[in-house]
Amino acid sequence: MLPTDEQHFFPHKLLLSKLVYLSYNFLTRANKENTTMEFRGVANQRIARISAHLQPSFTPQMEAKNSVMGRENCRAKGGNPGFKVAILGAAGGIGQSLSLLMKMNPLVSLLHLYDVVNAPGVTADVSHMDTGAVVRGFLGPKQLEDALTGMDLVIIPAGVPRKPGMTRDDLFKINAGIVKTLCEGVAKCCPNAIVNLISNPVNSTVAIAAEVFKKAGTYDPKKLLGVTTLDVARANTFVAEVLGLDPREVDVPVVGGHAGVTILPLLSQVKPPSSFTASEIEYLTNRIQNGGTEVVEAKAGAGSATLSMAYAAAKFADACLRGLRGDANVVECSFVASQVTELAFFATKVRLGRTGAEEVYQLGPLNEYERVGLEKAKEELAGSIQKGVDFIRK
Ligand SMILES: NC(=O)c1ccc[n+]([C@@H]2O[C@H](COP(=O)([O-])OP(=O)(O)OC[C@H]3O[C@@H](n4cnc5c(N)ncnc54)[C@H](O)[C@@H]3O)[C@@H](O)[C@H]2O)c1
Ligand SMILES: O=C(O)C[C@H](O)C(=O)O
Q1: Is the ipTM, as predicted for this complex, more than 0.95?
Q2: Is 348 in the pocket of ligand 1 (CB under 6 A)?
């Protein structure tokens, strides 16, 4: 059997890096010991070149050229055929775990990690994982455009999280501006990319993103998806606990939005078909609607859900990539442009395909409890969506 590209190139890479390391040590020592300016100048140039091999990103000289250098050094032979994915906010609580999970996704060939802080560390760390995706890091607004250029999927967990006592809407003041800036970058550099928006309040930030894209003339409603997968993961978990089932066997549609009463689990549509007592319905609905607050309180000031969210975001991103690849029957809940209700955006099951959310499913039959919940959800959602629209239009 012929060796794979990676096996074939490995001995050569090992020798090269040993050589680079030895020369680096030699030149550093020589530079310290040598007193003539001429030698020092030449040695410094060599050290800079060798450092670039050891730490291909973020040395001050290279910062501006970071992505270009990455391309020159691109390990194309070791890279997967696959999709190009950017994570904006990659150094955060969600961002770091999500970066790790996306580096493990075999559908990803190139992973761009962008943040305004600590992107170099996260990039160096994740890039040592021996999986197929090539990783490049981007730090600060000057590198945003390089981070976004050519991307197929952009995942946005950038922004501040809640502390106990706060609502998601309390994050609007800071996160609205962050989402606006990042989406302006998307509109300019990868207008055809699918966007997975995680930053809260999702019920408003999705509307903000849509308005930014409309203003730029790049809006494709199918490609803008608010991530509500964590609500579904929680619903599956809590329902499975009540039913005594494995959560992987349970499927609970969660519709509406992503905050308090706007999170509406449709327990009458649970698979496998199950019946619940009135108190089970009350308990489950409350717990699913307040799952985020449960984590915020347990973390006691240290942020909100990060690990379960990274898991949920990675699951949703994988579904988007499978859709892009052309897989059939990829269905997930998401907060998208919708005609299911009178609201401009609403979360329901959607079918993901080559162009994004290609089909938005109807709600299906609701019981009386769910109909009452739907009215409450719509009332709150209407205000949150309008707040997002106004942020850009006014
Ligand atoms: N949709 C959901 O289900 C869901 C679930 C959990 C958390 N969230 C939200 O996700 C967001 C992030 O949560 P976290 O716990 O990871 O927070 P965090 O503070 O740990 O990380 C946020 C990261 O965003 C970065 N950031 C800030 N401004 C930026 C900018 N302009 N460009 C790029 N990066 C920027 C920060 O430097 C930080 O690294 C919060 O708004 C939170 O409420 C959403
Ligand atoms: O609750 C939060 O603030 C974070 C997130 O929206 C969640 O549902 O965990």
Answers
A1: yes
A2: no
